[in-house]
Amino acid sequence: MRINNVVKITSLAAAGLLALTACGATMAGSTTGGTESPSPASSSAAPSSASSSSAAASSSAAEGASTGVYTAAAWALPITDKGDKLGAIKGDSFSVDIYQVATDVASKDSMFVDKETKENLLKKGDPIVYLNYVVTNTSSADIPLSHSLVTPKAKYLDWKYMGGMPSDSSSDGYKKHGLSSSGVKLKEKDPFVLKPGESFNLAENFAYTAGKETGIEATLTPQDAAGDLDHDKKEKAETTVTLK
């Protein structure tokens, strides 16, 4: 798959969480907390700062900065489009703009180790990259969403494990770079209705290798009137981007 070569899939299958336990990898018993995913243990790229802003600017960014390009939903955190735009995902009723925002280093070891080498797949101090996803309702109808929202997930094309890639689950890194892994304001309750033209954003991080081809898949499963996921209307879309 090449950059911006989008594959759309509509599925009637029941939604399920993708197991993070990678094929050929096991959990490290001493690691605590967080939702994490595996990534190449031999990342040699040097981490770099994505921003030279002052401490005051960083504090402002941590709360999010809405832009004229996007209109944030009432329940969504403010939207930022800072960073390098790598590409976009186009679904039937939604789009996802993909931004590479910052690089940093992991604050702790991940939960996953390779079964054969016994090496942790993301060690403390390994370089990581932060991607921010801006999801927009491109249809003419409201889209009621559950807490699962639309959550894009990235995976290197040569990733050899069945599960996703490990991440640094510390919230400090997200705050440092003015990002959020949730996308929703505190105390907001579902359904989160995304009106036509409205957007929300959320971010993820994973082990960083510059120039790496990365597949990104997004799944949208709306909520029905009873508050259940409407799998008959589930959409999937994906694209491939190259990290800077």
TrEMBL record:
Residues 1-28 form the signal peptide. Residues 29-53, 219-244 are annotated as: Disordered. Residues 228-238 have a biased composition (Basic and acidic residues). Keywords: Signal. It comes from Paenarthrobacter nitroguajacolicus. It comes from the Bacteria. This is DUF4352 domain-containing protein. The keyword Signal applies.
